[in-house]
TrEMBL record:
<feature type="domain" description="Peptidase M20 dimerisation">
    <location>
        <begin position="188"/>
        <end position="282"/>
    </location>
</feature>
<feature type="binding site">
    <location>
        <position position="365"/>
    </location>
    <ligand>
        <name>Mn(2+)</name>
    </ligand>
</feature>
<dbReference type="GO" id="GO:0019877">
    <property type="term" value="P:diaminopimelate biosynthetic process"/>
</dbReference>
<dbReference type="InterPro" id="IPR002933">
    <property type="entry name" value="Peptidase_M20"/>
</dbReference>
<dbReference type="GO" id="GO:0050118">
    <property type="term" value="F:N-acetyldiaminopimelate deacetylase activity"/>
</dbReference>
<feature type="binding site">
    <location>
        <position position="103"/>
    </location>
    <ligand>
        <name>Mn(2+)</name>
    </ligand>
</feature>
<keyword id="KW-0464">Manganese</keyword>
<protein>
    <submittedName>
        <fullName>M20 family metallopeptidase</fullName>
    </submittedName>
</protein>
<dbReference type="GO" id="GO:0046872">
    <property type="term" value="F:metal ion binding"/>
</dbReference>
<feature type="binding site">
    <location>
        <position position="165"/>
    </location>
    <ligand>
        <name>Mn(2+)</name>
    </ligand>
</feature>
<feature type="binding site">
    <location>
        <position position="139"/>
    </location>
    <ligand>
        <name>Mn(2+)</name>
    </ligand>
</feature>
<keyword id="KW-0378">Hydrolase</keyword>
<dbReference type="InterPro" id="IPR011650">
    <property type="entry name" value="Peptidase_M20_dimer"/>
</dbReference>
<dbReference type="Pfam" id="PF07687">
    <property type="entry name" value="M20_dimer"/>
</dbReference>
<dbReference type="InterPro" id="IPR036264">
    <property type="entry name" value="Bact_exopeptidase_dim_dom"/>
</dbReference>
<dbReference type="Pfam" id="PF01546">
    <property type="entry name" value="Peptidase_M20"/>
</dbReference>
<keyword id="KW-0479">Metal-binding</keyword>
């Protein structure tokens, strides 16, 4: 497949791999990507991009126009790492204990930089404007949403947008495209149950938030079983339940946190509404009161059919039919490029990082994961082809 790689991108491979390994060794968590975004901005400036810093706190946009064409395209990479203690023992392993590029965002940033260098060179011909979007805080907080709220698409209008994610368990350098609802919505729901504490020997003089909570947890399971139509995707997981410190004390309150996932906006609304109703009625039936907070919400990621077909066709044209996987399945994971896809038509696709048991075949968010440098030139060449073929 190497003959599908753009020669100028192949020439800069070593330089970009060095950047990727530097980023890997120096990971920064969500909204703390100061060093990373500074490196990105300096590289882009050196290649002649007009660079805007500090959009969405640490986000960077590099813009470049050629010709007098009016078309514009946005390409996005994420820059943040995860709060994980790395266990790879690689020479470029994280130098910061408890922080790690375990999702390959170091690789995504490097892929977009490799594309950026070529796009700015005289070898790359296009007619229009390209906006390279380096976003912070994909793993938490929602950096894409922050950038949009600071006028991302008003300041940098994009007709269409694209982003990729490396994917372990998929063969190295193979593309996965999916039209429609591809990644789940995610909401964190925190429920606080307020009872009335007292002596464990005299429950009749208390309102027990633990019993209330136990009943609530079981009732919440009925939402997926009894309210969501069979055949739809939905998850209601109670991930934490905290209450009490002694066997003979009935506590005042109990707190639980849920993650709620779905593949359709209307199912997401249904799940949230039923959680609110069941929590309210269950708490009251036990004499308690309840409070609900919803945060860290990511919408369903919806790939535009036309843009996805365009990208798939282009991948087949340049990399061959074999380079494009016949099918990839929607995922219950979530991805905040979904916010950008609510604003502009586009597509989010997968790039195989290596099959299980082979190089790159350790799952993301695992302490043993590493991004596979072999796919940098593939991803960068494809990003460049998207620009050249849309902005004609
Ligand atoms: Zn991740
Ligand atoms: Zn990721």
């Amino acid at each position: 497949m190497s003959d599908c790689i753009i020669p100028e991108i192949k020439e800069s491979e070593e330089e970009i791999i060095a950047i990727r390994r530097y980023l890997h060794a120096n990971p920064e968590l969500s909204l703390e990507e100061f060093n990373t975004s500074n490196l990105v901005a300096r590289q882009l400036e050196g290649w002649g991009y007009q660079v805007t810093r500090d959009i969405g706190k640490t986000g960077v946009v590099g813009s470049l126009s050629k010709g007098d064409g009016k078309k514009s395209i946005g390409l996005r990479a994420d820059m943040d790492a995860l709060p994980i203690l790395e266990a790879t023992n690689l020479p470029w392993a994280s130098t910061v204990p408890g922080k790690m590029h375990a999702c390959g965002h170091d690789g995504h940033t490097s892929i977009l930089l490799a594309a950026a260098k070529y796009i700015a060179s005289d070898s790359c011909q296009f007619n229009g404007t390209v906006h390279l979007i380096f976003q912070p805080a994909e793993e938490a907080i929602g950096g894409a949403d922050l950038m949009i709220k600071e006028g991302l698409f008003d300041r940098f209008p994009c007709d269409r947008i694209f982003a990729l994610h490396n994917m372990p368990y998929l063969p190295t350098g193979k593309f996965g495209f999916y039209e429609g609802n591809f990644m789940a919505s995610a909401d964190t729901v925190k429920i606080t149950l307020q009872g009335y504490g007292g002596h464990g020997a005299h429950p009749e003089r208390t309102v027990d938030p633990i019993v209330t909570g136990a009943a609530l947890i079981m009732s919440l399971q009925s939402i997926v079983a009894r309210n969501v139509p069979p055949g739809e995707t939905a998850v209601v997981t109670v991930g934490t339940f905290q209450a009490g410190i002694a066997s003979n004390v009935i506590p005042d309150s109990a707190v639980m946190e849920l993650t709620v996932r779905s593949m359709k906006p209307e199912i997401r609304e249904l799940l949230i509404r039923r959680i609110q109703e069941i929590t309210d009625f269950t708490a009251r039936s036990y004499g308690a009161t309840s409070e609900i907070e919803i945060y860290d919400s990511y919408p369903v990621l919806v790939n535009d059919a036309e843009q996805t077909a365009f990208a798939r066709q282009l991948a087949i044209e340049f990399f061959g039919q074999d380079a494009v996987l016949d099918s990839v399945s929607p995922s219950n994971g979530s991805e905040d490029f979904a916010f950008m896809l609510q604003q502009r038509p586009g597509s989010y696709f997968l790039l195989g990082n290596g099959e299980k048991g082979e190089k790159g075949g350790c799952m993301v968010h695992n302490p043993g994961y590493d991004f596979n440098d072999e796919i940098i030139t593939t991803g960068a060449s494809f990003f460049a082809r998207l620009v050249e073929n849309y902005c004609r």
